[in-house]
Amino acid sequence: MPTLSAYTNTENTALVILKDLGYRCWHDKESELCCCEKSGWDFSANSFTELLGVVRIYEYHQPKEYREYWWKIDEPWLKDSVPTEAPDYAPVWKSDTP
Fold first, then answer.
1. Residue ranges of the domains in the chain?
2. Cβ contacts of residue 44 below 8 Å, gap of 6+?
3. What is the rounded CA–CA span in Å between residue 24 and residue 60?
């Protein structure tokens, strides 16, 4: 069991974080997408938890103006080399220390 997973019980937390970061959020009933906007930059995802991840990509890049594929990072290409097994580690939730 991971320490934290994207699930329905993380939705409100993600929504609170987005609002605290200054994003105006809404749920588009027609498309069923979770959306937000800040300073004209608008984003959407299937959940508010995913939306928080999309916003983090925007905040990582900090674009000054819109251009096509402003968010894309191609190098290094890591997607095809992601391990299929977890590394050896001690999960914090199994720790004896509080």
1. 8-94
2. 28, 31, 33, 34, 35, 36, 51, 54
3. 19
- Tell me the pLDDT tens digit for each residue of 8-26: 999 999 999 999 999 999 9
| CB half-sphere exposure, 51, CA atoms < 13 A | 32
Q: In the chain, what are the helix, strand and coil shares in percent, each to the nearest 5?
A: 35, 15, 50
What beta strand segments (E) does 12-92 contain? 24-28, 33-38, 41-45
User: Residue 72: which of 87, 57, 83 has the closest Cα?
Assistant: 57
Task: State pTM to two decimals.
Answer: 0.88
- Cα–Cα distance for residue pair 18/41, rounded to 1 Å: 13
